[in-house]
Each structure stands twice: as C-alpha cells, then as structure tokens.
Amino acid sequence: MEDLYPSRINSEPTVIERKDPILHSDAGQLSPGPLTIEQLKSFDSNGFLFLPNLFSDQEVKNMQSELDGLWEEASSSTRPEVIREPQSDKVRSIFAVHRDDPMFSALARDSRLQSAVEQILGSEVYVHQSRINYKQGFNGKEFYWHSDFETWHVEDGMPRMRAVSFSILLDDNYEYNGPLMLIPGSHKYFVSCVGRTPENHYKDSLRKQEYGVPDHESLTWLAKQGGISVPTGPAGSVLMFECNTMHGSNSNITPFSRRNVFMVYNSVSNALVKPFSGQAPRPEHIATRQSSLVNK
Ligand code: 6CS
Ligand code: FE
After folding, report:
1. Which atom of ligand 1 is nearest to the CA of 202?
2. CA-closest residue to ligand 1 atom 10
3. Which one of the ligands is nearest to 147 CA?
4. From ligand 1's centre to the CA of 270, what distance in Å?
C-alpha cells in the first residue's frame, strides 16, 4: 500500500498538507449524531472539541474507584499492559482496559462516545487503543509533543487519518496539574519526523517518547499560527481530538493527580495494515489487529 505520510525516513524534517478529510462521510453527507453543526465546525477547524460534564458525578465516582482497584493490581504487576514512569516505578499507564476491564469495556461502547465518533468518521468504528493515564501528583511525567497518527501510521500501519481519541477526564483538570495541551489547526498538516524507529520502540516510547517527535522548527511554525489551547474542566468532561492533532502534556508537580481514560476509535474502513516502518507490528494490547475485534 502506498505510504501517503512517510515519516522517520528522511534526514530532514518536512511538513506536508493533510491528504484526508477531517469530517468523513461515505455517503456524501454527514451521518446524523449528537454533535451540533457548530461543534462539528469547531472540531473541523481546531482538531479537537471539549464536552463539559458528559458523565455524571456518580459515573465519575464509579470510574474513579475502578481506577483505584486497577492501580493496586498494576503496582505489583509485570503484565505488559502496565507501563511505568521513566524515572520511577510508579504506574504511568494501563493499556487495553476496553478489553480487560468490564466497566471500561462498557464505556468503550457508550453511545455518548460511539455516536459522536461515528458521526465524524462516517462509518462503523472499532477501538484501536485504550489506556488509562494516571499522571499522578508529583510523579506523573510529561508526554512530549506528538501526533498520535504519526506513531499509529509508522508503527501500527494505520493507513489514513480516520481515527479520533476521546480523553475522559477522571480528575478535575486545572491549568497546573498536567492537562492536555493542543495546537489548534495542527491536524491539517503532517510533520514528517527524522530518525529511524528503534526495534521494540514502544518499550521506551510509552514511558518517554524520543522518536516520532516533531522538530522544534515545525512545532514553532504550527504553534505560531495556531497558538496553544489547554482545555480544563471538571472530571466527567470529555476532550475529543483528531488523530493528527499535535498535543502533549507537562509533568505534574502538584499534589493533584490528573487521571484520564483514553478511548481511540478507528474507522472499520481504515483497519491496520503492515507498519509503514517495515518493522514488526506492535502488540495487540497497544493496537487492535484481531479481525474479530475490528469487524463489529
Ligand atoms: O504510541 C502510542 O500509541 C501512544 N503514545 C502517545 C504518547 N499517545 C498516543 C498513544 O497512547
Ligand atoms: Fe498521544
């Protein structure tokens, strides 16, 4: 399959225009769904949309106690889905919760998420990846600037930009406890990164990403034209962002954790092929490849 978004191949970084639509429709008009025209236009223009208080206080409390139980189990676990912080053994992320945990499996199928993403992607969807990021107080380290699509294209073989991430806030997100920062409009450009992907890169990149990160000049160019947006709000809110929107988050040096759960939906018309890096695919708990899960 032709590589429309080559990255980690050239010795110099380049920025190319996006080749895919942002609001997809197989039938020529947008699918019906919960998002208003204004919300769709905002997502199209910025590459993200903040939905305050989508989940009730009780739903948040239920998910927070689920997080506590998962944290306890993960703290002494050696299973590969558990990722630890780069400078400590503290739990940083737990992957594949949509597959392994009943509450988050139900969340993945929640119509508030599924109907919104099917409206944008214009097709049936499946969960490409899910994870909990704990971003613990004092210990939660940064996620450097990146486009998720760049990684999912190069390392997982995601052909086109037809996927959306939902970050469900499970703690109040303040400007100071490491909220997600996004560059409005950055989803319209693909930053081709330099450097060859190391073998088994995910063993390091999920702790601290050093390959597939954009160069300072490209980041500066994007930020000067789009600025930097830091959506904050109460637990239970949802931040949905396009797979190619440039984002990152700072280390959390406050006492207040910034836990969230991510659900990433891919169009069933955009199922993973061989990684464009030419290397072996990443494990199933990071990128869904099993057809049983892909075909609804
Ligand atoms: O490599 C990945 O798939 C993960 N890395 C980051 C920093 N964001 C997306 C995804 O969770
Ligand atoms: Fe990311």
Report:
1. 1
2. 148
3. 2
4. 18
> Which residue has its alpha carbon closest to ligand 1 atom 7?
143
Determine the Cα–Cα distance for residues 142 and 135; give it in Å rounded to an integer.
Answer: 8
Crossing angle for the helix pair 111-121 and 37-46, to the nearest 10 degrees: 70
Q: Is the CB of 151 under 6 A from ligand 1?
A: yes
Structure-token pair, residue 140: 């939660």
What type of residue is 47? Answer: G
Residue 30 Cα to ligand 2 midpoint, Å, equals: 26
- Torsion angle of C-alpha atoms 42, 150, 218, 231, degrees rounded to 10: 40
Provide the 10 A C-beta neighbour count for residue 42.
Answer: 16
Per-residue model confidence as pLDDT tens digits over 233-265: 999 999 999 999 999 999 999 999 999 999 999
pLDDT in tens, 196-239: 888 888 888 888 888 778 999 999 999 999 999 999 999 999 99
Ordered structural domains, the chain, with CATH: 14-270 (2.60.120.620)
- Our answer on whether the CB atom of 148 is closer than 6 Å to any ligand 1 atom is yes
pTM over 0.90: yes
- pLDDT 10s digits, 139-192: 999 999 999 999 999 999 999 999 999 999 999 999 999 999 999 999 999 999
Tell me the percentage of the chain whose pLDDT exceeds 70.
98
What residue owns the CA closest to ligand 1's atom 5?
206
Neighbours of 62 (CB within 10 A): 13
Residues with beta carbon < 5 A to ion ligand 2? 148
pLDDT band at 290 (very low <50, low <70, confident <90, very high): confident
